[in-house]
C-alpha cells in the first residue's frame, strides 16, 4: 500500500480502501476503514498522493508527542553494558497530497489498524501522557505486518556501574524518522545514566554501510517516510526524551 | 513657514523647555508606541508556532512595556523633568499616589505576582470565585475569562490573587467517578467484567493510573458498583459523558438492568396475633365500666 500514486487510482488492502476519483472539475478523495468513512474534495491538478507510515501519535487524536513502549518482560542490563534489541511499535498510515516533485506536502488523512491506548508516565501532578504500546523483546529483527507494526532497533547503553532493570521506554515523536520498504523501521538509542534516569533519541541520519553486516536488509533500499511532525514548523522542541521517573 | 514660535520657552517651565521640545517628546513617545506595537505584532507572529501562547504573550508584554518605560524616562528631560529628581520625588509622590490609587496599585502588584507565581496560564480552564471558564488574557490590572457559555468576565487581579483558584487543567490527568446500580438478582462479577472490558477498549481511559471497578455499596434497592477512570485532562469531559451511556448499553445488552427504586413489603400472615386495639374487651369488664356511675352514686 505504501508508495506514490497518481490520480485517479484506487487501492485496497486489509480492510482499508483508498481512492481518488475525478468528478468533472474536481477530485474526490475517499477512504474507508471499518465503519469510518472520510471524503475530501481536492481542487488542483497535477498532484500526487503519497501513502507512507507516520509517527504513531496522530490517531484517534493528537494529544501527546510521546510514545511509551512497555516490554512484555522486564529486561536486566549489566552495568557498563551496551546491547542491541528489537521492539515493535504501532503503525499509523499517513496520506499526503503533494506536487509532482513530491514538494509542498499537505497531510490529507491518517488512519491506523491497531489498538489505541494512552497512559501516564510519571506522577499525576507533573507526568506526561503517552501513547501506549506493548512489545516483546526480540534479539533479531521480527517480521510483523507492515500495515500494523514497525520495528525499532534499540541500542541500550548502561553508563552506570549498577544493573539496570528496564520495563519501558519513552520516545518523543519530534525526533522520529521512519524508513520503509517491505517493513517499517526506526533506529533508536537509550542511554541509562543511573537507576532512575535515562535519555532516548533517534538516529536522524540515513542508515548506511555500518549495518550491512547485520541480518537486517540493506537500509539504503528503504525509503525515508514523510512524517506529520516534520511538516510542522517546529520551534525549540527537544528531539530527545529524558526519562526521569524510572524505566 | 515661520517655526520660531517653537523655540519660545513655555511659561510654566524654565527656559530649557520649549513648545518644540514638548512636541518632540510627544512625537518620540507616539513613534515608540507605534514601533512597540509593530514589534509586538511581529514577535507574536514569530513566536506563534515556537512557544506556548502563555509564554509568548508574557515575553511580548515585558518587551512592549519595557520599551515604553525606557523611552519615557530617557526623554523626560525634554519636558523639563530630571529623571533623578523624579526618582527622588517619586518617594513622596508614590505615597500620595498610593493612597489615591490603592486599588490600581493593588491590582498591579497582584498582576505582577500572578505572572511570577503562575497559578494560571492563558488557555487554562479555571474556576475563580464563582466564575468558571477559559483564561483569555492575564493583563497588568485584570484577568479576562471566557465562561463556558461564551461570556467575557473581567476579574481584577487583586481578587484573582486573594481568592481560591481552581485550575482544572493544572495537572496532565484527571479522575472521574460513576456509580452504576444493578439489581440484586444480577451477577455483579459479570457486570464488573463487562465494564472493565469497555474501559479497555476506550483509548483515553488511561492504563496508568489504572482504572478501578468494584462493588462499593449494597443499597436499599440495588447493588452499587463504583467506576473510577483516569483520563487526559483535555479529554476528561468527553470520555466521562460517553462512557456512562456505553456502560448502560453494554449492561442492558447482557441482561443486567439498572433497577428503579423499590421497597419490598412483607405482610405477616399470622392469624393468631391480633393487634392490641382489636382485642375484644371481656363483657364483664364492660359491664363493670357501664355500672361505674351507679356504683359510685350508691
From TrEMBL, chain A:
Pfam annotation, one family: DUF432
Domain of life of the source: Archaea
Name of the featured protein: DUF432 domain-containing protein
Native organism: Methanosarcina barkeri str. Wiesmoor
Automatic annotation (TrEMBL), chain B:
GO MF annotations in UniProt: mechanosensitive monoatomic ion channel activity
Protein biosynthesis is among the record's keywords: no
Alphabetical keyword list: Cell membrane, Membrane, Transmembrane, Transmembrane helix
UniProt keyword Ribonucleoprotein present: no
Protein's membrane topology: Multi-pass membrane protein
Transmembrane regions listed in the UniProt entry: 20-42, 62-80, 86-116
Domain spans labelled Mechanosensitive ion channel MscS C-terminal: 179-258
Domain of life according to the entry: Archaea
GO cellular component: plasma membrane
Residue ranges of domain Mechanosensitive ion channel transmembrane helices 2/3 in the record: 61-102
Location in or out of the cell: Cell membrane
Any matching Pfam family: MS_channel_3rd
Domain Mechanosensitive ion channel MscS, residue spans: 103-168
InterPro entries reported in the protein's UniProt record: LSM_dom_sf, MS_channel_1st, MS_channel_C, MscS_archaea/bacteria_type, MscS_beta-dom_sf, MscS_channel_2nd, MscS_channel_C_sf, MscS_channel_TM-2
Chief location of this protein within or outside the cell: membrane
Ranges in a coiled coil: none
Family, as annotated: Belongs to the MscS (TC 1.A.23) family.
Name of the featured protein: Small-conductance mechanosensitive channel
Protein species of origin: Methanosarcina barkeri (strain Fusaro / DSM 804)
